Amino acid sequence: MPLSDLANPSRFLTLANRAIPWLAGLTVILLGIGLYQSMLAPDDYQQGATVKIMFLHVPSAWLGMLGWGIMSLAALGTLVWRHPLADVAAKAAAPIGAAFTLLCLVTGSLWGRPEWGTYWVWDARLTSELILLLLYLAVIAVWRTVEDPSRAARAVAILTIVGAIDLPIIKFSVDWWNTLHQGSSVFRMSGSTIDRSILMPLFVMAIAFTFLFVTLQLAAMRNEILRRRVRTLRLMQASAVS
Amino acid sequence: MDASGHIGFIIASYAAAAAVVVGLIAWVTFDFRAQRRNLNDLEARGVTRRSMPPSTATLKQAREDA
Q: Which residues of A touch B32 (CB under 8 A)?
């Protein structure tokens, strides 16, 4: 199937209906392996057992940023090609990205209390992550406020592209400013500083969370396409009656 | 595993993750059922994309909504 065929909502629905059960099954298997490895992972020499929170916190942070990245690409699709499937992708990604950003902040706070002695500090990494959550909430508010989906899509697309500035700020905040949050330890030019016994479960959990995100994204896009069909049919029905 | 008094924070983190994941799965599942039900109701009343004589405005909307 050519890639351009996916731009057709009906063909996308067919593909999504086939792919979602397989993706869900893979997600369950990967999550099972990841959780098993996480439970067996040794305590960190500094963090002790609280390192187990990292197996949730790091993948959640990654997905929060991935969600906005998907929305940014979709925003280009909306503004440049005005393609309705780009609007659908952007709208579907917002609540999922917001949920994982919230989970990142909650697990970070629960890790921070025993390790830093506080649930929250206004350092650059934590604050830029909180801004990402607020941006997600703003996008969701626009989708829910503007009734016409195509008008809402254009407003959201502009907000999304402007908000994408926050992504490099989150990533490099620990390099640009003096933060309580630790520096990069997974993706570094000189290699990861994390021991293999902890890095492997973290890696598997990140892949499992990514599969979970993709499954939820496809399911939410399918729902949004159906919602738009319902809306169109109701408009046609109302037009025929009047 | 030496939880050393921090087990409550670990359990709370995994409970929060479970709540978020279950919440997202419930959201997409119930939303899917609701949209299917709405479409089936419309089709049962004979409202399909080929049954209605659409106006120009609804045709435009239909194209935008795909």
A: 219, 222-223, 226
